[in-house]
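Consider this:
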Amino acid sequence: MALDSAKKQEIVSKYGRNENDTGSSEVQIALITERIVELTDHLKSFKKDHASRLGLLKLVGQRRRLMRYIKRTNKEGYMTLIDSLGIRDNI
């Protein structure tokens, strides 16, 4: 279920401050969002995969905490991030 390196590098170059920036909150949220989308598609076809469902819930919680941090520290960056990722503002 992990992202391949080409997809990960594409996300890092789009949302990172430079090409090696993998630790900023924006990049982490983008990577987690991509994993959430993949897991959601997986769970649509494998409804009884409860281990993956638990992992999905953990990822959603982790993304929520990171989004709360960004909203608190950088409101403008938060708004552009949720617009580009297509995430609702429910924090």
Summary: The two ends are 27 Å apart (CA to CA). The chain has one domain: 5-85.
